[in-house]
Amino acid sequence: MAETTKAIFRVVINGSIDAVWRELTKQGEAQAAVFNAWLHAQALSPGKKFQMRTGSGKYVMVVGEITDFTPPTRFAHTFRFTQYDDPDCEVIYELKQLAAGVECTLTVDRMPLGSKTAKDMQGGGSMIVNTLKSVVETGKPPFGTRLMYFMFKYMEFVLPKKSGVKNWPL
Q: Which residues make Cβ contacts (< 8 Å) with residue 77, sequence separation at least 6?
């Protein structure tokens, strides 16, 4: 078995736990905190499959299976980028109400050491929790993130064909 690593990202958000939960689990619209991807799920319950797709719906960026769905405190699932051949890892969002706001902890576990998934998640995890904070507190991602999402929208054609939605039935 390959060696794995774990990454933990944490932020305190000035908002309600329900608002944070909604941003992490909403369907039918872009998730601004998660690279503007759209969550598609068989159902939001353990054992059900889900995908994160581009805004056009033509590409699947991530696939996984929900392992825990306990509103509004815990959302956990397996995670695999469709563009890589890396094995699944695990993503866990935990929310805790504090006097100062909502503590959001994102844990990415079982990332194969040296993999493309580990490299992307090391950088992506910080961006996700910080963008989530901005979205809940201000209603929008930071300007630089919005600019990046604008570019994503018009550059999705560069995604590999293997990420095409037809290759990843839900």
A: 50, 64, 65, 66, 67, 68, 90, 91
